[in-house]
Amino acid sequence: MDSDGACSDSGQSDHGNGVSLVSPQLAISQAAYYTKSDKIRDFLASKNVQAWVELAHIRMKVWQSEEAGKHFEMQRENADGAAQNIETQVGFLKMMLGFANEIQDGTGVFTSVRPKNPRSVLRKPVRCLDTSAAPGALAQYFLRQNPRATVDGLSLPVESGGYPMLLECANKILGVRPRPQDKDTVNITWTDITLHPLFLPQGKEYPEEFPDKPAFDNNPPLPPHLQFPPSKPSDRVYDIVLTSSRYLRRCVHAQLRPWEAGRLQVSQLILGLSFVKPGGSMLIVLHNLESWNTFATVYKLSRIANITLYKPEKCHAIRSSFHLIATNVQPELEVCKVWVEKLKQAWYTMTFGGEEGLGSLVEVGEGLNVDTILDEWGEEFVVLGQNVWKRQLDALKRKGWVE
Ligand SMILES: C[S@@+](CC[C@H](N)C(=O)[O-])C[C@H]1O[C@@H](n2cnc3c(N)ncnc32)[C@H](O)[C@@H]1O
Predict the structure, then answer these.
(1) What pLDDT score was predicted for residue 31?
(2) Residues in the chain where the model's pLDDT stays below 70
(3) What is the pLDDT of residue 16?
(4) Whose CA is nearest to atom 25 of ligand 1?
(5) Looking at residue 23, what is its pLDDT?
(6) How far is the CA of 194 from the centre of ligand 1 (A)?
(7) What are the backbone dihedrals phi and psi of residue 326, each rounded to the nearest 5 degrees, phi first?
(8) DSSP per position, 247-298
């Protein structure tokens, strides 16, 4: 878990801030657990990446601050209780709309898939998939930027602890009138996105018996066009995919596996990379840029798309979360298909592995060599991360929790 309570990656133990930033005694005791994440942090320290070095120091102090601890605890309680509290949900909606606005101003992602020739009668409406659509802020914001577009949304059923859709409320906050076509432009499927046969690796079936089989059996299916892996490029129908699922601690099913946040992330990536059109865009929420699983995910995405990392200044600035904007995504590249297959294998192990058949912990970056990537791509990574580290650093300083 990172300081904001969001699991940084698939549950991989990720303690420490890099040996160079801890006491020699602690460094020795940690040596046995020297992780790939530690290597990344040491790389950043060795390159003297100022924003990151300062951030690592301030984070350590923040973790020891009682005031900060109380703040994060309150935020966690707020988020956990959101499914039962309409005021909190409206608060989230407002915050997400603020996010959308800042991200659009900073990156233009919501208009990145506008047709080149908007007057052409042949043009098809732009299609968006939001893999965790409720309460609907990003969907509504996207539709206002792309008036003829449609959104297919997936979201955890409210009775399982998910949020409701609040599209009309979003209109009011945006100060826009509802349009007659609104009721047809957002199609929501209420389903737990982590429990679908789409994620099975090639040649694998569900085990005959496993402890949460009823949850799989009772989970509503994905829409028909998302149920099977694409067999040709035209099966990829989305111009843009938005993924911002948040692990919900009070969702009973989500508590079965300590690495659920990672399973959720893997499920979203598989969905997005399976159905985004060649040349399309993706907006992906990630956490803890310098942890191995996130680092590996960003690296893989940089092989198949043009990527930018963006951290809004006004919302969640003190947290480790950030947005990855991928444009010109090339899901038909062999390297992408191989990666998706690896993600499916990770999903399978995280879901059904282990002695109890409830999964086991998996590295998303399995098979990648951290040293090789740092050698080849480290400098680019440093440039990509500046905005993320600097904005979190400035926001933490503004909080005044530490001297
Ligand atoms: C940060 S909110 C998403 C915000 C939304 N995209 C918007 O723009 O308003 C996180 C969402 O993830 C959903 N979620 C969490 N776990 C899920 C799961 N297993 N399957 C589907 N949705 C899930 C929650 O119900 C919630 O709607």
Answers:
(1) 52
(2) 1-33, 118-122
(3) 32
(4) 162
(5) 39
(6) 12
(7) -115, 125
(8) --TT-TGGGG-TTHHHHHHHHHHHHHHHHEEEEEEEEEEEE-TTSHHHHHHH
Q: Whose CA is nearest to atom 18 of ligand 1?
A: 192
Q: 328 phi and psi, to 5 degrees?
A: 50, 45
Q: Which of 85, 132, 142, 252 to mutate to test the pocket of ligand 1 (most atoms within 8 A of CB)?
A: 132
Q: Is the CB of 186 under 6 A from ligand 1?
A: no
Chain position carrying tokens 């449609």: 150
> Which residue, by CA, sits nearest to atom 19 of ligand 1?
192
Contact (CB, 8 A) for 143 and 149: yes
pLDDT at 401: 85
Using the atom order of ligand 1, give the atom closest to the CA of residue 141: 8
Is residue 351 within 6 Å of ligand 1 at its C-beta?
Answer: no
Q: Which of 155, 219, 268 is the pocket-test mutation for ligand 1 (most atoms within 8 Å of CB)?
A: 155
Q: Which amino acid, 247?
A: Y
Residues listed for the chain: 403
Q: What is the CA radius of gyration of the chain?
A: 21
Instruction: Give the pLDDT confidence of 126-157 residue by residue, as tens digits.
Output: 999 999 999 999 999 999 999 889 999 999 99
Quickly count: other Cβ atoms within 10 Å of residue 15's Cβ: 9
pLDDT of residue 118: 66
Residue 186 — φ and ψ, nearest 5°? -120, 115
CATH of domain 19-116+123-399: 3.40.50.12760
pLDDT computed for residue 19 by the predictor? 27
| pLDDT at residue 6 in the model | 32
